[in-house]
Amino acid sequence: MNLETQYLGLKLASPLMAGASPLADTLDSVRRLEDAGASAIVMRSLFEEQIESELADVVASVESHENAFQEAVTFMPRAADFAFGPDEYLDHLRRIKDAVKLPVIGSLNGVSAAGWLRYAKLLEQAGADALELNVYYLATDPAEESAAVERRTVDVVRAVKAAVKIPVAVKLSPFFSALPHFARELERAGANALILFNRFYQPDIDAVKLEAAPTLHLSDPSELLLRLRWLAIVKPGVSIPLAVSGGVHSGLDAVKSVMAGASVVQVVSALLMNGPEYLRRLRVELEQWMLENEYTSLAQMLGNMSLAKCPDPSAFSRANYMRILQSWRAA
Ligand SMILES: Cc1cc2nc3c(=O)[nH]c(=O)nc-3n(C[C@H](O)[C@H](O)[C@H](O)COP(=O)(O)O)c2cc1C
Question: Is the pTM of this model over 0.90?
Answer without folding.
Answer: yes
